Amino acid sequence: MITIGQLAGYVGVSVKTVRVYHDKGLLPEPDRDASGYRRYGAKDVIDLIKIRTLAEAGVPLARIRDLRSASDEEFRRALRDIDDGLTDRIRGLRATQGRLRRLAAGDLAPLPTEVGAHLEDLARWGFTPRWVDLQRDLWILVFATHPDRATALFHDQAEILADPALRRIFLDYDHAYDLDADDPRIDDLARRAAEATRERYGPDELPGLDTASEIPALVQSTVNASSPAWQRIDTLIRAHLE
Q1: Which domain does 80 fall in, by range?
Q2: Do residues 124 and 205 both lie within one domain?
Q3: What is the dihedral of CA 208, 211, 213, 215, to 10 degrees?
Q4: By the 8 A CB rule, do 234 and 223 touch?
Q5: Is residue 40 within 8 Å of 7, Cβ to Cβ?
Q6: In this structure, are 125 and 99 located in the same domain?
Q7: Considering all CA atoms of the chain, what is the largest pairwise distance in Å, rounded to the nearest integer?
Q8: SS3 at position 40
């Protein structure tokens, strides 16, 4: 027979933890001996090992208490369910670990290879590093929140930028970043952008995500917040398209 301290030490828990298990009804308290000490036997060690193992697996204490009265078959079935839950948690943790490693490497989210190649094209075509970084962040947002629409939207924009005349509009948009919001060049750029949009999509069907999504507004607000000139361009384009 052993003391509570020896029991805790053998199993690898604290005496306080053993007492909590007593209070919760998980581990019966043995009677005290003539000296007033509680003494524990081999069965108590085995029971405590089972309790500790289940608790470490994330099983709530109330559930562990219920399992004490389960039949052998019920107990085995419960263990299988717990094992399946652990497998799911491990899979989730590995996915989280992968995201952390990508974050540490400066890669917030994986983008399709074709998007990476497109971003390289932007730099080659004369877009500023600021614009390229902004486009990367926005595509990460779109692919993360609307994976079902993101590829089609990306192909649409890539096709637009493959056209030198349309690409010129985007380049002018990029380089308007530092212009004063009242610069007359902004009005001309907004008019050209609106005309190109109507010519490509028609008057009634403009590209974008579903109307219930808040992402388009978030994307545009992110762009507008970068530059007063960009914000005015957006306002003027909307006015032209109404």
Answers
A1: 71-107
A2: yes
A3: 40
A4: yes
A5: yes
A6: no
A7: 99
A8: strand
- Give pTM, 2 decimals: 0.54
Task: Mark whether 63 and 125 lie in a shared domain.
Answer: no
Check residue 211 and give its pLDDT. Answer: 47
Q: What does each C-alpha distance from 219 to 27, 80, 178, 232, 235 come to in angstroms? A: 57, 46, 20, 16, 14
**The tokens 């507008």 sit on which residue?**
224
CA-to-CA dists, residue 220 to 83, 224, 226, 238, angstroms: 46, 6, 10, 12
Q: Are 141 and 218 in contact (CB under 8 A)?
A: yes
Which CATH number goes with the domain that contains 10? 1.10.1660.10
Rounded CA gap, 214 and 30, in Å?
Answer: 62
pLDDT at site 138: 85
Report pLDDT digits (tens) over 118-170.
Answer: 999 999 999 999 999 888 888 888 887 788 888 988 999 999 999 999 999 99
Dist CA 57 CA 170 (whole Å): 55
Number of domains in the chain: 3
129 in the same domain as 58: no
Length of the chain: 242
Q: Are residues 182 and 149 in the same domain?
A: yes
- DSSP 3-state assignment of 38? strand
CA proximity to 1, closest of 44, 31, 41? 41
The span from the CA of 235 to the CA of 167, in Å, is 21
Within 10 angstroms of residue 117's Cβ, the number of other Cβ atoms is 10
Q: Residue 21 carries which side chain, given as an amino acid letter?
A: Y
- First-to-last alpha carbon distance for the chain, in angstroms, is 87
